[in-house]
Amino acid sequence: MGRALIRSTDAQNFLEKITTNDVSSLTIGQGQYSLICNPKGGIKDDILVFRLHNEFLVVYNAANRSKDYEWIQANSTGGVEIQDVSDEVGMFALQGPNAALLMSGISNRATESIPRFGCAWTQIAGIRTLVSRTGYTGEDGYELFVWDSSVAKPENARAVWDRLLSAGSSYGIEPCGLGARDVLRLEAGLCLYGTDIDENTNPLEARLGFAVKFHKEFIGKQALLELKASGHISKIRIGLMTLTRVIPRHGFEIFSQGRKVGSVTSGTLSPTTGRGIAMGYVEDKITREGDIIEVKVREKFEKGAIVKPPFYDPGKFGYSRKISRAS
Q: Does the pTM of the predicted model rise above 0.85?
């Protein structure tokens, strides 16, 4: 992930302009999921914004690091300091049902009390670390930002990594890469930038309107308001589960009653459900939950049902299960 610090007395107003969510609602130690849009309302990236004591931390997708940083700079005012710290701050994601237990045993503060999308400073293995209750897997967990850990001098990041693995051995912790994360985020129904969302997709089509606050001014607002007023959304994101283990892949065509109505953007075999799952975009009228549609898989038409993500039972899996247990 890319990481940037935004500083100045006008940092809040600046972030309000370039992001879609309500930055003013954040208190120190709070974060939010948000979007950066272009003037036409297309999604330049999906991001996290955290309010720290005297600055904001913005986390964006690694593939968009240069693009986002240049966009932020191009839209800044002279009094705003923007520092990309991606190469100076290490970052790990600790995810899973035992993440809170693991963290409470290695941190010098009560990290289990950090709320969802909250963040707090702590020390792990004696290293200053910012811990946020976030992650892109659908599970409970944390993202760890290891300060003073550059590409040239990664010793601090290595120390935190080693501490996580050694302390997590009793929980069966395993190092995982982006392939594992991609399956988990898809099971949770979370969008992947460049696959499910891009600059040719807007937040209304992607069903990300919860992260767009129209009571404030931001880049792309006018285009989105005009789209809302017209009532014409040409495509909309859906979840799809096949009736068998067949896997819908990116680019596969979606049909309804023999007519092509859209295409798959992400697809895999779900380890949790044992079924093929996918997200894609279809015509705005082909979105009723439970309806049967078809995916063209190597010249065959495979049946599937429109479902509302997450694809798993949230009472048994994922972050909401943690909430229900706590209550």
A: yes
